[in-house]
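Form 12-C: Joint structure prediction
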Amino acid sequence: DVVMTQSLLSLPVTLGQPASISCRSSQSLVHSDGNTYLNWFQLRPGHSPRRLMFRVSNRDFGVPDRFSGSGSATDFTLKISRVEAEDVGIYYCMQGTHWPLTFGGGTKVEIE
Amino acid sequence: EVQLVESGGGLVQPGGSLRLSCTASGITFSSFEMNWARQAPGKRLEWVAFISSSGDATLYTDSVKGRFTISRDNAKNSLYLQMNSLRTEDTAVYYCVRGGYRYLECWGQGTLVTVSS
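Section 2 - Result
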């Protein structure tokens, strides 16, 4: 199985400052169809999980533009340009290129 | 507004069975592929099962193959997960998820399944 590694378990951030969450895969996530199936999800307390990004850098409808995704092959990053209080939660990357689908271990964003 | 509402969770003994349901509203349910995913306490998210929009194709993660069955009733806008031979390691919050299995685009609020004696 493809192992998704999020090296940071916890990311303390200051309100209004940027934050960067990394995710690394054990194999390239470039599919034979040319797409890279790497998604980012946000789990906030008291809310359903929410997809933020699909195929690396495509922002979902309604997701603030302070969120951006980047990366290629095995290294990916989710960035928050200016952290707001509502961004507190756990962020997971997920690969859909290889069978079975696998998720990263999550990075908890907390306000310091 | 899209709503996915899961129900049917609860406490069950090891070896027991449970049937989860998910009712969808705000979407043309029959047009969408659907999934179940779960998150065990303190663990990462895990995809569990997929069903095509017509229901004629299904996929499962290895740990539930032969024990869980995903199905749907498009006339009732409903998705189901029949869980048999439950194990303690199946304890988790189970989510109904709309979308292809590569995408998992929209999630319900989840229902808690606890397998314990």
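Section 3 - Comments
Chain B touches chain A at residues 4, 44-47, 61-62, 95, 101-110 (CB under 8 Å). The first strand of chain B starts at residue 3 and ends at 7.
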